[in-house]
Amino acid sequence: MNNFPSRSLKLLIFLFATTALQLHAQCPGEAINIDNGSFEGVPSKGIAPSGWVACQSGQSPDIQPGNFGVSLPASDGNTYAGLYYIDTIKHPNLGSWQEGLTQQLATPLKPGSVYHSSVDLSNSSTTDSGLEPGCASLEIWGGFSECDHAELLWTSGNISNYDAWQNYQISFLPAAAYTFITIQIKGLGCSGMPYILVDHFQPLVEEYHIQVEITADKNTVCPGTAVTLTATASNAAGTCSYTWNNGSGGSSTTVNPVMTSSYAVTVTDSTGCISEPASFTVHTLAPLKLSYKINPFCEGDSTWLTLFPKGGNGSYEIALNQYKIYGDSILILPVRDSVYTITLSDSCSTFTDTLEIKFLPAPQADFTWSKTGNAEYAFSDFSSISSGTIVEWNWLFGHGESTQIQNPVQLFTPGYHYSISLQVISDQGCKSNKVQKDLIVPMNVFPVIKGNTNDPTGITDPATDAKFLSGYTLYVFTETGNLLKQLDAINGNPVVILQSLSLPSGTYVYKTTNQENQVTGGKIVIMN
Predict the structure, then answer these.
(1) Is residue 130 classed as helix, strand or coil in its secondary structure?
(2) Whole-angstrom Cα distance, residue 266 to residue 254?
(3) Which distant-in-sequence residues (6+ apart) come within 8 Å of 455 by Cβ?
(4) How far apart (Å, rounded) are the C-alpha atoms in residues 287 and 313?
(5) H or E segment and range at residue 20
(6) What is the rounded CA–CA span in Å between residue 83 and residue 5?
(7) Most-buried pick from 35, 67, 117, 234 (CB within 10 A)?
(8) How far apart are CA 352 and CA 21, in angstroms?
(9) Which residues 6+ apart lie within 8 Å of 175 measured at CB?
């Protein structure tokens, strides 16, 4: 009984294989014929079929059926080959025996090309002449001479079907341009002397692939820009047709992507071979975006506005209220809360946004003072802020002293002018401008001396203190402040000296300064 598929089943398998080739873009190319691939000959023992050469002298395969109890009908033609193997480990006294057949190919194999073929194989259950049914495989070798084992191209694995044909698909990728092919039995260790049957070794068909390359006149474009894609096919037979995934035909197509998109094409040659889809991605520039950073700032201050443009082609123009910005930052000085229009543009598009800028309120410093004693003054803070609170006060009094008390009390030296300043700071770090006011501390007013007397007895006058009685400078002013006299290195009571100056009757102001820069003075009325 013939165990191979019927004619209709063969046709179904062929149609399925053809469809699979198209789906996987595997196309049959040139075929290298196997001479007497059905192993036709006169059934006999130890005789190689025509077109084949036995690999070892005295170990020639057999032409079946009809020998060693083998009766399985051929799967193709009338006869087939039988190959015998002796396992020397199991039968050390029998010697090595591994039958094989070889032949020279009509044309060399092409290194790097994939070849497809098939062969019908069966394991035999015969025990005639000491044969032992068991596991074995068929190996196919490539070489440069008869029976040369340069490269193992394919192996069937264990042939587990006994006394029934099974078709084995063959695929291999040779590493060199081999000119000989060898088939050989290989025992797999579970039997001492297995015997396999080989028939219908098909031609070696080189698989070819249509190679497709897509090029574009532009790779990265503004959204909506026209791009021409061109497909070029190689390794194809005859005239080709092209099918693009956007519905276009022909080797070129024009697309207008509004976003990054991939386009694919398949190529069919004159034999009906279809290529794998080739794809090409056209990148569109990302939409323009603009973010920014602005440092918090106080009323009356300037601040840096830093811009961070993204997207587009990277060649930006930025404008603030229609004024072009050079670089990515600008110093601004708003005089009030403001809204700015920012425009970002490149060669593709324009992006516009609004930026609202509000400054932090600055406090306003203000204060007054009142005299609380002889040359002692109390200062009262009247500073204000529209929102937030004032948290820091910095006072300077003009005589080297400072304080951060909100309402301080300070002692001054009479007879001097002092510049008082206050700076206040809010809880958001905003500072007021310093406010400066002049404080005039009057000199002590002493008792009026009337008449022309040299007796200062009973007069309470700091100038009579011993430290003002020698080596001091005496200044005499009119009541309106005009300097009349300056007397240096004076010794004695200044009141007595004033009375000795023969000044006209009137009111005078005097001041004394000693060597330690201590000052005192007062008013005196001269009556002649």
Answers:
(1) helix
(2) 16
(3) none
(4) 10
(5) helix 7-23
(6) 24
(7) 117
(8) 55
(9) 111, 151
pTM: 0.46
CB neighbour list of residue 113: distance below 8 Å, 6 or more residues apart = 29, 173, 174, 206, 207, 208
Which region holds residue 415: left if phi is over 0, alpha if psi is between -120 and 50, else beta? left
Q: How far apart are CA 510 and CA 523, in angstroms?
A: 6
Q: Name the 3-class secondary structure at 306.
A: strand
Structure tokens at 1: 């009984």
Q: What CA–CA distance (Å, rounded) separates 357 from 298?
A: 11
Scan for tokens 């297995």, then name that residue: 194
Q: Give residues with Cβ within 8 angstroms of 172, minimum separation 6.
A: 114, 115, 140, 153, 154
Do the beta carbons of residue 37 and residue 202 sit within 8 Å?
Answer: yes
Which candidate, 421, 373, 428, places its Cα nearest to that of 396? 421
528 residues of the chain, pLDDT tens digit each: 233 333 233 323 333 333 333 333 457 778 999 999 999 999 999 899 999 999 877 678 999 999 999 999 999 999 999 998 887 666 666 656 789 999 999 999 998 888 999 999 999 998 887 788 888 999 999 999 999 999 999 999 999 999 999 999 999 999 999 999 999 999 887 877 889 999 999 999 988 788 899 999 988 999 999 999 999 998 888 899 999 999 998 999 999 999 999 999 999 988 888 888 999 999 999 888 888 888 778 887 788 888 888 888 888 888 888 788 877 777 777 767 788 888 888 888 898 998 888 888 889 999 999 988 777 899 999 999 988 999 999 999 988 899 999 999 998 877 678 899 999 999 998 988 777 888 887 765 444 333 333 333 333 344 444 444 567 788 888 877 788 888 887 777 777 777 788 888 888 887 777 666 666 677 777 776
